[in-house]
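Chapter summary example.
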Amino acid sequence: MQDKDNSHSKIVIEGITETGETFRPSDWAERFSGSLSTFRNHRIYYSPLLRPSIQNENKCLILDKSLKESNPALYEHILEFAHKNKLKICGEDD
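The structure predicted for these 94 residues follows.
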């Protein structure tokens, strides 16, 4: 049975540094997600390719690996940002 979320095709970037500190600014995930979001009826709709989330009580960014095909520059920019700021990354090497 395949996981409905297809977590194997996702990269999760946690807003926690390798030293365990909470990354600031606190809205970093929403800022990145906003680059692919749309507004309708006074609401923001995040793309399934790039969306904010909370896991383990930490802000996260869920990055679909298919973004690498549709928007390689944004995909690389996000991963470079995560590496530069020493954020926890899960699923990058899967």
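To summarize the output: Residues 1-5 have pLDDT under 50 and may be disordered.
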